Each structure stands twice: as C-alpha cells, then as structure tokens.
User: Fold Elongation factor 1-beta from Poecilia mexicana.
Amino acid sequence: MPTVGVKRDFLFKALGRTYTDEEFDELCFEFGLELDEITSEREIISKEQGDSKASEASDVILYKIDVPANRYDLLCLEGLVRGLQVFKNKLEAPRYRRLSPDSGESQRLIITKETAAVRPHAVAAVLRNITFTQERYDSFIELQEKLHQNICRKRSLVAIGTHDLDTISGPFTYTAKAPGDICFRPLNQTKEYTATQLMSLYKTDSHLRHYLPIIEDKPVYPVIYDSNGIVLSMPPIINGDHSKISLKTKNVFIECTATDLTKAKIVLDMIVTMFSEYCAQPFTVEQAEVVYPDGKTCIYPELAYRKEKLSGEFINKKVGIRESTERIAQLLTRMCLLSQPTGVGDEIEVEIPPTRPDVIHACDIMEDAAIAYGFNNITRTTPRTYTVANQFPLNKLTELLRQDLAAAGFTEALNFALCSQEDIADKLGKKISETRAIHISNPKTAEFQVARTTLLPGLLKTIAANRKMPLPLKLFEISDVVLKDESKDVGARNSRRFCAIYYNKTPGFEVIHGLLDRTMQLLEVKAARGEGYHIQAADDSTFFPGRCAEIFVRGTSVGRLGVLHPDVIGRFELTMPCSALEMDLEPFLGHTAEILLTHDVPMQETFKHPFPALSQSQPALPSRLPSTKTVLGDLSSHAGLKALNDFLADRSYIEGFTVSQADAAVFDAIPSPPSQAFCHLRRWYSHIKSFHTERARFPSARSQFVLPPTPPASPNNNSEDDIDLFGSDDDEESSEAARIREQRLSEYAAKKSKKPALVAKSSILLDVKPWDDETDMAKMEECVRSVAMEGLLWGQSKLVPVGYGIKKLQIGCVVEDDKVGTDLLEEAITGFEEYVQSVDVAAFNKI
Assistant:
C-alpha cells in the first residue's frame, strides 16, 4: 500500500479543526485508511543516516498514512483533505469542468509517427492562473512522484512532465530522434548535453538511473519541442531546465507520454483535479488538443463522469445490513459518489467522478457503502449454514510427514520456488528442454529464470551455504514443483515432492535407503512388488552410474534415490559425496491422508490378547449410562442445553483451542442430537461427531466438566468405614516425606545453579546486493563489517555473480539470538544506501 506523508499541523489547518492522535487514527479507520506512523523529518533522518546528519532537520510532526493502492485521489494532501471533508459532511464533492481558453485557441500537442517505436501515446492539459505556495508546490511535485511509482509503474507506462507555459510557446511537437541528435540543458544542470551524454551522466544518479533502461536500448529517444525548437522534456528521463516550474509560475502545461493510453488519461485527470482548486476559477481545467499521426484530434483532459445503477437490496445483502434506499444513497454520497434513488423499486443511480477510476464494478460501490456505514457498526450474525472444516488432505499428509522426518534426525529446509535454468539443467547434467520447466518471460535476475522442476538443487545450494557446519548434514524439504501440463487450463500444474539429502565423508546411501523404508512404513506401504513398493536399478545423469535406483509404488514410478554424480556435486561447490532421495507424494493420497500418522509404526507382531468371556460364575457388572450432569447444568434438560449453547457461542472447543477429552466427555453426556434452536451447540456437536475413532487419541482434559452420577443410597450404609481401628501414623509419615522432598529440591536447585547457562546462537548467511556493476564491492564489504554489535561475529565472505556483470556479497556471521536479530542486522546494513540496494537472508541455522 502506498504511504502518504503529510505535516500534521498543515493537515489540521486544511481540515478546519485539531484532532488528537487517537481521534485522527479513528477517523482514518472509519474512512478506510490507516495511520501507519507518527514521526518527524529529524526522526526519519536519524534512523536512516544517524543522529549527526539529523541535527539540522525539522521537528515538524509528520503523519504517515497508508492508502489503498487503487485510490490515486488520496495520494496527496489536497485529495486526502477533500475526501475527509466530504466524508464528514462538511463539504460537497466538487464538480470538475473543462473549459476552452479565453483566447479561443487551445494549446496543441502534435504527435509524429516516429514515436510509435518507443512511446506512442500522449495527453495534455493546462492549469491556468494557478497560485503556488511552498506547501502546494511540494505537494504538486510529490503527487507526481507517487503516481510515477504507483499507476505509472516507475515511468514504464506513463511519464509526467510539467512546464511553465509562460516560458514556452505552442504548438508543441512530440517526436522521436536518434540520441545523438537530441541536445538540451536538462533540469538543474548548467550546460547542454546530448541524449547519449545524459545516459552516461545519470548512470550514477541514485534517482534517475532506475529509469534509463526504459529507453536505453531503443534506436530513437522520445522528445518534446515547442514551436521555437526548445526542448521541454525527454520522457521518461528528465525535463528541460528552460521550462521548469517555480513558486512564481502562474500557468502550468502538463503533458503525459505513455505506452498505455488509459493509464495516461487517469494520471492526467488525477493531477488536474487535485490542483485545479488553486486556480483563479476553482476546479476548472483548460483543455488541450492532441493531434495523432493519422490526423485524428482528441481533446484532453476528458474529466468524464459516468453513471451506474444498482439495487439497494444488493448492497444490503452483500454488506449484511438493512438500510433504506435513501440511507444507502446518503452513505455513497459521503464517499464522493453522488447518488440518489431513481424511484423504480430500490434502484439507486450512482455518479462516478473522474477522481474515482478505481470504481469499475458494482462490488466497488458496495465496498464504499460498507466503509461509510462503518465496519464496526455491522451487526455480528451467526452464519445460517454450518460446516465442519477439514485440513486439505495433501497438506495434512505433508505436515504429518514433516514431524516424523524431523524425528528421524533430518532438518527441514525451505527454498525459493524460482531458480535459474542452470540449477535444474546444466548443474544436474540435463538439458533444459527435457525438464518441462515453466520459464519466466522477463526475469529480473539470472537466479530466478524458471519455476523449479525438482527440489534437489535447492537442498544442494543450502548444503553449499552451510558446508562449514559439523558433518553429517541431513536435510529434507517437502514443497511443490511446477511442471508443464497441457491438460490444465493454465498449461501447468503443481506437484508436491519430498526430497532428502545426506552429505558426509562417505556417501551414506544406506541412510537415504533407510529413510525411504521409514517413510513407506509411515505411509503404510509394504515392501513388496505389486501392491507394495520396491526399487530397481536405473540410469540418471544426475546420479553416479550403478548407484541409482527408481522407486515403484503399486507398479508406478514415483521417484529416485542414489549417490549423486561427482560432477553434479562439484558444480554446486561441494567437495564430499552425497546421497539423495526425491519422490512424488501425491500418489499416496487416499485413506492414508485421512488417518493420523504417529511415531508408532504398525507392525505385524502386534500383541493379541483376547479378553475372556464372562462366565456364569462371574457376576456381570451393572451397565451404567454416562452422567448428563455437568458444570453447566443437566444436559438432559432444556436449561442445561441452552447454557452449553451460550458457552460455545464464542468457543470452538470446551477447553482451550484444540479438541480434548473434555469435548468427548461433554459429547457423551448429551442424550440426543441438539435441536436447530441451539445453533452453536449443533456446530460443536457435528464437529466432535466427525472424529469417530480418533477420539481415543484426544489429549487429556485439564478440568472436569462432567460430574459423576450420584450413587443410590445403600440401605446397609454403616459408619464403620469412618473409624480408624488401627491408629495409623499417616500424619507423621507425611511430614517426614515433605521434609525429605524439600531437602532434595533444594539440593537439585543448588546443583543446577552451578551449571553455566546455555547461550542460544545462530549461523546466518546474508546476501548483500549492490546497486549496479559499478558499486565498489570492497568498500561495501568494509561498510558491512563495520556494523558492530554485542553478540555479533562476522565470518568469511565471497562475491557471487548475479547476472549482467553484477556481483553480490555473500557473507556469514554468528549471532547470539537474545542480542542480535535479522531485522536489526538488515536495518544496519541497508543504512549504507550509497552501496547497498537490499539484504536477504540466504541461510539461517541454529547452532
């Protein structure tokens, strides 16, 4: 979500009243926003650059407000204040108008055919007789930057140019020329440069260098001239210095060049509607003509209003309220959507202003009605349908296997689903065409080019990053791979895989084979051909010849295991032998996924002890029904069932947050299924009933909820049991036992206190990425190692190629968990923003 920073005092002045921080936070929530942070310029600079550079910064309080990504009208102070004022019924939504110039001739922007190769679209408008103050000027510039980062997609879709109209003269020409033929003085520069020279100049500019690749490889660059040949801008890189705006500017010419015409129209509408209130005629915009290469002429800005119709019943049903048509129209009007009933049933006509391009469906209107009504004001209701939730079988099987594999001594790893083509092909001794891999059309780095088709490369890279850890290294991963599948509507499918790896001085094939047998025991698959599983020799370029086997389950191949080929091990920068296992888990779904796996493997030698039948000489025990009396009342009565229903209104279980024997006991105490009137009780009853045979495995209850039945009074009840005929000395024994217990506890505590406290430590491998290939990597490493904290010890480092000549710094460290966290490390390292672009945790292991 975009974050808008506004000065608190200036915001309150525009709103016409002062709020406390809590009151404004509540106002933002009511309007569908979030007050993210209360800070100041000095505090921000202090966090990012240190106290020394923050000494001269301002102490003015800033509000950081999170706004929805599609609410472009809230990205500046003007739109935010206007929206809040309308929401609080202190202002009516303004009506935006497009006017012809007083002179009768509109400014024209002529597009030539050469622009089709780079940025073929353009729109324009004029803000006439506008008055800037420093705050308005800053907001004007900041809105352009917010739009560039948001809807403009970092200028790749739309680039905005604003110019002082009094310093230039129309008509204007938007064309494209060879870089060497473009020469002008760019913004805030003292001399002229050609476009080629500008590309070299801005390669080191922290702000503009990110936009150079948009046109850098194009044969021609876009450029805008006025009638005198003066360059207004070279979009999307830089404006010309000749036409730059200032506080004294009265007439602003706005042009937007784009690859997406729809986005360009939205951006132009946003800028002119937000700042037209400062014109001599508020909320009016002077039109401009855009002439296309085919001679077609369009008038901009469009400032189009459109109307939609929907029913009040639709909003009431979707939001969960019962409001009249008139009331719903009032709610929508508060959200700048002028609405009124049409008089035809419960139909409402809603007018969408040009500031709300986010409204594209009736659901968007319904959402605004819900915001205006207030989410906290919607009455909580119980769903009319009741269902019993079950875990997705594949995920349930995965979770159960993870627990048992960890118990077998293997450590779980989680790796990225994207990898390089080299990882799944060349390094494994395969051809990329054989892998059925899904390719990324525009990968940002060489590390993320395809979706992985196997889990093995990720585990090998994890081993390589942790090869200095004590041997043996035993890792496993259960995750999805992505494979091409023409039968699917998207052309691909996910497949859940299990992969394990053993890395030691010896291959350890017997360890991996044993893990396979253990896994099959847990999955209740016998070691036999036909209906069970077996392995047979196979050839695979990834594995050592003669040391590879294919796994068959019920006659179907599900995976392979074996000793990895030395060449494969060497390509992942490993030096010791390694065994691996990888197989598909989805063929094992079925009854196995529905039962509870435990650490106790079912064995054929299960003890069988038949219970002897009751003979006639043995009197049968009297059968006794479960007690219906509980701490909540007698469940055989209406009052008891109602009390239990109220008790379960906000609970899923009788005790705690998981099912337990307390639920089973109360379930047994209910004589018959409860009626529909007890909705919460029926939900719980259906849920507990679904467990069937698993109830015996429920954890024990911490409290007793079902009371024992009252035994019938015995006619021969004597009081002899209350008489101690032997005069036992239990009191003396109890006091002696207590004394001995206290003595042993004190001795144990003294012994334990002498043991040194264990310090929890972790080994972390960090990927520190530079801005580009010109970053001084030695200086960057020096800056990283300069980060000093108690409990932090830096280790070895190396430079790893990323792509296009760029290298990243991979550096290890050991930290004490209680003193140093990854967030703290990342914040400290990214503080060197001149060298560091980002920091990622490549590996994290407990020591």
Summary: The first strand starts at residue 3 and ends at 7. The chain has 22 helices and 35 strands. The chain has a mean pLDDT of 85.
